[in-house]
Amino acid sequence: MHTRKQLSRPGGFAALLLASLFALGSVEAQTASGDASRTQNAAVSMAPSPLPAALETELSCAGYIEHEPNYSGFEVVGAEQEQEKIAYSAGDLVFINAGAQQGLKVGQEFQVVRPRGRFTTKLTRKSGWLGVYTQEIGRLRVTVVKGSMSVAQVTNSCEQILLGDLLRGVPNRVSPPVGDTADLDRFADPTGKQNGRIVLAREAREMISRQQIVYIDLGTEDNLKEGDRLTVYRPAGTGNISRFRDEEVALSANYGFESEVFRGGKFSINSQRVQNASRGDIHGPVMTTPKVKRRRPPMPRKIVGEIVVLNVQARTATAIITRVAQEIHTGDFVEVK
Question: For the chain, does the N or the C end have fewer beta carbons within 10 angstroms?
Answer without folding.
Answer: N
